[in-house]
Please model this.
Amino acid sequence: MSVPIHYYLILSACVFFTGLVGVLIRRNIIIILLCVELMLNATNINFVAFADYFHDLGGQIFVFFTLTVAAAEVGVGLAIVVAIHRSRSTINVEEFNLLKW
Amino acid sequence: MAELFFGYFGGVIVLTAILVVALRNPIYSALSLLVMFFHVAGLYITLHAEFLFAVQLMVYAGAILIFYLFAVMFLTEKKPDRYHIQSQGAFLIGGAILAGVVALVGQHTMSFGSSAVRASEPGVEEGNTESIGHLLYTTYLFPFEVASLILLVAMIGAVVLSKKDLSETSGS
Model:
């Protein structure tokens, strides 16, 4: 492997923090879910890079489980978004106050 | 050479990741996330994960992102007219991509007979897909079953959440 492992670590850290900042600063709930996908992809890059580095396919297997979690998250998350939009007519997280008092 | 590919893919990944957060229009955010998924898939090729490349394209770029685009178009209130304008350059780019795909498939079909014979010979080194499948059904069999349970629960949860009208229970 010619590209050193820490290049991949830096890349995935950049993508992860971009997603984290996006979750914290954006107010559109769909963009927040997209940023969660960014963070999951950053961990996937790490898994595959280390699977190649150690010549162990376990890292690639774990990407499948991340993929399962991402698919479940997008299904349930968008169902919640649609349900909230039906009752509140908004997708701005500032106006969600079902669990606030 | 590998550094060159890593620099290209990594640069585009970081750039489009920032664009996902920075763009105001949710549709443009979702489309830049699509570009990011394609380049992450390209990065998997350089890391010798060919099966994950295909899975990334099919599941992330194919299924999850279409789901997001559907939700964005379904839930966004304002509908600017510029989505209905189609530029002439799009036909040229689409035609060029189609010609490239046809050329690749035709080239591959002509050389398919010899490669199929070579793959079925015994003693050929186990491919990426075969070794992943072998590992998934032996060492990681129990987590694999748990993953299927997660998908089942998510499916039932999505159906229940979409069916029930929350405005009845919230009283608004």
